[in-house]
Amino acid sequence: MTQTSTQPVALLENKNAVIYGGGGAIGGAIARVFAREGARVFIAGRTRAKLDAVARDIAATGGPVETAQVDVFDQQAVERHADAIAATAGSIDIAVNAVSVMHDQGTLLADLSLEEFMRPIDGFLRTLFVTSKAVARHMGRERPGVILTLSEPGAKLAVGGILGHGVSSAGKEAFSRLLAAELAPSNVRVVDIRPHAVVDAPAAGSYTKDLFKQSAAAAGQSVQEFLEGGGMVQGTLLKRLPTLAEIAETAAFLASDRAGAMTGTVVNLSGGALVD
Fold first, then answer.
1. What terms describe the molecular function in GO for this protein (predicted)?
2. Which DSSP letter does residue 8 get?
């Protein structure tokens, strides 16, 4: 009798994936799961120490990983990096933009400067344009391509103090939807992931701590208290925020062929803060 193997096939076997912002909390979590699922991972970012920490974790499990110190605001540098990946690996199958741009949350219009309002709008959308343009020419056709972007519930919330944040979030979702229409004929999917604030991100870095410092202080709480027990949690149906693992596992599924019919949409990981 012939025995058949019951070992599950890795979701991203033989895929080449580049993660911009791969040294950050979300980008690093996605890179680790992608590697576990069989992808050859290329992580790029501005901080060498953070990239190396993620790479060590992946290498320790036997996963193939390469790092590159790249400023995602430098279009020529990003294009050279994408060209080098394609030349080395043969193609780029998956690209994830997990770049973070520090910005204001909590300041109302009367006290908000034009510079602070524009910071996330220009920063986030510029990186999306630069990275998407660099990878798209190396994706698709006979090998299905996937571009994953990240937004936030601010795209849909009607609350004060998040003007720049909310507009940039809505812009990221619109960019992803419109890019999906452009790239579909080339066999490239584009899907946006919309998590809420990530409950375990403060332990991984300072971005979340700095981002919510002002709002937490106004509520008389620490950032962790603000995230775990404040109005942010109470405003969700599940009464909890998403974890890094949940975001990374979802990204792996969306990047896989199992989600091959999904494009031009937003995957809502807000815990029910928003109900689409």
1. oxidoreductase activity
2. P
Q: How confident is the model at residue 117 (pLDDT cuts 50, 70, 90)?
A: very high
Q: DSSP states of 159-177 as a string?
A: -TT-HHHHHHHHHHHHHHH
Tell me the backbone φ, ψ of residue 246, rounded to 5 degrees.
Answer: -65, -40
Residue 204 has pLDDT above 60, yes or no: no
Residue 78, phi then psi, degrees to nearest 5: -65, -40
Question: Residue 69 and residue 82: Cα distance in Å, rounded?
Answer: 12
- Domain extent, residue 190, equals 16-269
Is 5 inside a domain boundary? no
238 to 200, 226, 242: CA distances (angstroms)? 16, 16, 10
- pTM flag (> 0.85): yes
Contact criterion met (CB below 8 Å) for 239 and 233: yes
**Residue found under tokens 């908000």:** 112
Amino acid identity, position 176: S
Structure tokens at 49: 């120490």
Tokens of 54: 């993620």
Q: 76-106, pLDDT tens digit by residue?
A: 999 999 999 999 999 999 999 999 888 888 8
CATH code, 132 = 3.40.50.720
Q: How far is Cα 84 from Cα 264, in angstroms, rounded to an integer?
A: 28
Structural domain count of the chain? 1
Task: Report CA-CA distances (Å) from 61 to 36, 58, 194, 213.
Answer: 8, 5, 29, 35
Q: Give CA 151 to chain center in angstroms.
A: 8
